[in-house]
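Researcher: We're teaching a course module on how sequence relates to structure. For the next exercise, students receive a sequence and then see the predicted structure as tokens, so they can try to spot secondary structure elements on their own. Here is the exercise chain.
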Amino acid sequence: MDTERETDGRRAALIKIAALCGMALSGNALAALAKAADPSQAPGLLSGDALALTGVLVDHIIPATDTPGALAVGAHRTIGHMLQVCATAAEQQAFVAGLARFDATVQAEAGKRFRALPARRQVALLRAIDEGRAPFGTGDQQFFRRLKSYTLFAYYTSEAGSTRELAYLPVPGGYKGIVPVDKNTRTWAI
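Model: And here is the predicted structure for the students to work with:
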């Protein structure tokens, strides 16, 4: 019994650490920690359908090329975690409502849910929402732009996004050990 409590305590501590450092962890790692804590618990703020729809959307926003895409790095899971940990209740509700409104609008327009449409039709609908054209409105456009900013953040803070997509320079400008200094020399703010 005590061993079980200790294990639960360690898992809870890991989840709290993950929440504090969550932006640096991949979405898949966060999901694994959450599942380890309580396998019967829902994956988070986003339902399974909402998470799957977010996955399709982030895959279109940053598709795989010679580097992994947003879906491959778990950006959709990171977005779910970010919303759950960092967003206000109103922001959370607005995001979930935006996803539901987007899927309902697509279903009314195309007769199918977004995930069931062919890729060309999905891209056409995403262009329409990005430009605020019918069948989408200004609120939908704002939701999509917010999703794109979340996707960029989640992708470029992932290991693949920050090391394979971006160049990483641990010491910008190089190291110069001996620099002549006089009373007019400016220093760097760190």
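Model: If you want an answer key for the exercise: Residues 45-165 form one domain. The radius of gyration is 21 Å.
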